[in-house]
Structures are given as C-alpha cells and as structure tokens.
Amino acid sequence: MTRRVFRYVPYVIAQDASAAPEYAARCVSGDEKDCGAESGVCGHPAEVEEWQRRHTQETRHLRYRRVFADYAVLTPV
Ligand SMILES: [Zn+2]
To answer: Which residues keep their CB under 5 angstroms from ion ligand 1?
Structure first.
C-alpha cells in the first residue's frame, strides 16, 4: 500500500464579498415527473420563499429543491 503525501499550503477560504450569493428553488412536486417550475436566481432567500409561497398557492405543490451558491476566494496566510 502506497501513501500519498499532500503538501499542505495554508490558505484562508472566505466568501468573495465582490460577488453576491445566489439562491434558487425548483418545484419537484409531482408523481411521475417533477413540475419543474423554477424561481430563477434570487439575491436573497426571502425572495425564493416568496416565490415558493406563490407557487404553492397557485398549484398546491409542496416540495422544492433549493440551491445556494456563492463564490469563495483563497488567500495565502
Ligand atoms: Zn410546481
């Protein structure tokens, strides 16, 4: 058995303040096929929740897949 040695380089990982995080949801309600309706990319989780409430009100769909994305930057220590 061989061992691989990874040289550890110290970096700090932090959220990139110059790029806004992204929030989105997709409706996955449905028996055989997902509904597929999407909120689109939002800049705040409350906007996604508002879209979900509206979509549920219109369709009675209750299940969503939520996605969060942000940008990260590594800075040498
Ligand atoms: Zn739906």
So the answer is: 27, 29, 35, 37, 59, 61
